[in-house]
Amino acid sequence: MKPSASTGDLFADVQGGVEPLAEGAAILRGFVADEATLLEEIQRVAAAAPFRQMVTPGGYRMSVSMTNCGAAGWVSDPRGYRYDAADPGTGMAWPAMPESFRRLANDAAGATGFAEYVPDACLINRYEAGTKLSLHQDKDERDFTAPIVSVSLGLPAVFLFGGLRRRDRPRRYRLESGDVVVWGGPARLTYHGVAPLPEGEHPLTGPYRFNLTFRKAL
Ligand code: MD3
Ligand code: FE
Q1: How many CA atoms lie within 13 A of 192 on its CB side?
Q2: What is the 44 CA–ligand 1 centroid distance (Å)?
Q3: Ligand 1 center to residue 171 CA distance, Å?
Q4: In the chain, at which end, N or C, are there fewer CB atoms within 10 A of the end residue's CB?
Q5: Inter-CA distances, 200 with 17, 58, 69, 128, 150, Å
Q6: Contact between 37 and 151 (Cβ < 8 Å)
């Protein structure tokens, strides 16, 4: 089947519907078919590479807890931000990226027009009540032509989607469990963040929100 240039036709068969955010960025509502398996895989990764609160180069402990899987993982410490093949906590390689993760990211990228997306890093963020992520750009990756794919699981959060300058006023979007967002093209370097997570209880994840971000980092 030859895809049409019209977004209507290109996205017509995407489960849950597509919400375009900007050129190159779209929310795929309810795109995750099997949330329970996703959570099991997160727990498997975290058993080998536990969640931890990293410290920024400015010396602040982040409120979000993080771990990684894949060939490279995002790390922050007082020396800076970078991708590293090893978990600095254990000195061992990050756990392999589960095949189901890779497939989900590749399917989501494909559904929004980014063919042959092969991420090599998956950052896993864990939020609890009060956890936030300040406005930032993701620019530690080598190749900005590849999109970032993000997957939300558990408690809902308000996502802040700004512009290419920090001072651009962000728009707010509620992201729910099972939503997937693809950020590519001109949207790749937009400022974004997450508002403080409200208290809550989710049937699958309890007091937590998890977010997977897939990146082509190397
Ligand atoms: C827009 N995570 O880990 S995912 C991050 O919900 C991060 O945990 C948030 O921002 C979270 O860096 C938001 C959505 C996201 C990820 C990457 C982007 C949005 C993006 C890159 C460019 C533009
Ligand atoms: Fe980010």
Answers
A1: 16
A2: 22
A3: 14
A4: N
A5: 26, 31, 27, 9, 21
A6: no
Instruction: List 20's β-bridge partners, or say none.
Output: 26
The tens digit of pLDDT for each residue in 162-177 reads 999 999 999 999 999 9
**Rounded distance, CA 186 to CA 45, Å?**
32
pTM confidence score: 0.95
Q: Is the Cβ atom of 183 under 6 angstroms away from ligand 1?
A: yes
Tokens of 135: 């406005």
| CATH topology (fold) of 19-215 | Jelly Rolls (2.60.120)
Return the SS3 of 7: helix
Query: What's the token pair of residue 42?
Result: 């997160």
Domains of the chain by residue range: 19-215
Query: What whole-number distance in Å separates Cα of residue 28 and Cα of residue 15?
Result: 8
CA–CA separation, 164 vs 105, rounded Å?
24
With a 6 Å cutoff on the Cβ, whether 138 touches ligand 1 is yes
Tell me how far apart the alpha carbons of residues 172 and 41 are, in angstroms, rounded to a whole number: 29
> Rounded to an integer, what distance in angstroms lies between the CA atom of residue 26 and that of residue 181?
6
Continuous segment of H or E residues that includes residue 81: strand 80-84
Residues composing the chain:
218
For ligand 1, is residue 213 a contact (CB within 6 Å)? yes
